[in-house]
Amino acid sequence: MSFPPDYTVRESRRARHVRLTLSAQNGLVVVVPAGFDRRRIPAIVEQKRGWIEKTRARIELERLTRAPAGALSLPQRIALAAIDEEWAVEYQATPAPWVAAAERAGRRLLVYGDTGDAAACASALKRWLQRKARAELEPWLRRLADERGFRVSHVLIRAQKTRWGSASRRGAISLNLGLLFLSAGLVRYVMIHELCHTVQLNHSKRFWALVRAHEPACQAARRELRAAWRHVPAWLRQHA
Prior knowledge:
This protein has helices spanning 41-47, 49-64, 118-148, 184-197, 205-214, 218-226, 234-238; strands at 7-12, 19-23, 27-33, 77-80, 85-93, 99-104, 108-113, 154-158, 165-167, 172-176. It is of the alpha/beta class.
């Protein structure tokens, strides 16, 4: 395999140090603090060569031994790009006839109960993700609405297969919990888009003018959003 691999750079206001992540879905991602000198990145990637090659080999082995099409593959890690968090998922079988997910120290997520039931495990993970989305996305949306002068009456968090969000003229906004897997910039665009729908419940020229006024780079975000479903993991898409 060639080295260095292609990688993307993501700037995070929360990051204090450079951090590398590597996954089959997103490839190699270099997370840097705001204002970091990006000319230093190639040397950092080279320093991590051993870890990168070892992780690439593991991902390739997992791909080759993946369960047959249609089988539900449960995650070992959950990376929430929107809020810059990554959780290690552990599975613990217990005599309980149900499955639940609980947070543990060190960003570990414990899934326990009848863990032999993959669908029940996926349901537990989705419930956890819904709680996480409620705690993170709703305050984010309300802050954005206050800053931009929009009125939000009610916020719903859902697992939808075809929409990132929706809005009503009365100010009710629905957000897809899968937004947690997207970049913060794309999440912000979706929120701006839906907030503008509370004023213009259409896709008219007036609507797009309003979106551009609040998000000048909306066209680029709109194009990027078309392919963003690939960032939502298969276990969630299958269980939406």
